[in-house]
Design goal:
The chain has 91 residues and is α+β, with helices and mostly antiparallel strands. Helices cover 52% and strands 14% of the residues. It has a 3-stranded antiparallel sheet. It is elongated.
């Protein structure tokens, strides 16, 4: 086979593998999905939300009065690149 064609096929295979490995982007993540995305335990992510170490909001979960934490895609990306927000100083 022609060397140029082999090189082109190799590049196409690499690009295809990269595309297949990407997951669709979600707008909002619950703590389980966020923990998976951040390679942390769910409990850890819940604590970050509770302590205000990341920007999160609560939504009704449909399980009684409890609400679950939700983290936006933008916040997940910020956490990956910048890390946690600073701890709040006690008054």
């Amino acid at each position: 086979m022609d060397e140029k064609i082999e090189k082109l096929l190799h590049e196409i295979k690499l690009m295809l593998a990269q595309l297949l490995s990407q997951r669709p982007v979600q707008e909002w993540y619950d703590t389980t999905a966020a923990a998976q995305e951040l390679d942390r335990e769910r409990y850890t992510v819940c604590e970050w939300c509770r302590e205000g170490r990341c920007n999160a909001t609560k939504r009704k979960s449909g399980r009684g009065k409890s609400k679950e934490w939700m983290i936006s895609h933008e916040e997940i990306q910020r956490l990956k690149s910048e890390g946690l927000l600073p701890r709040k100083q006690p008054r």
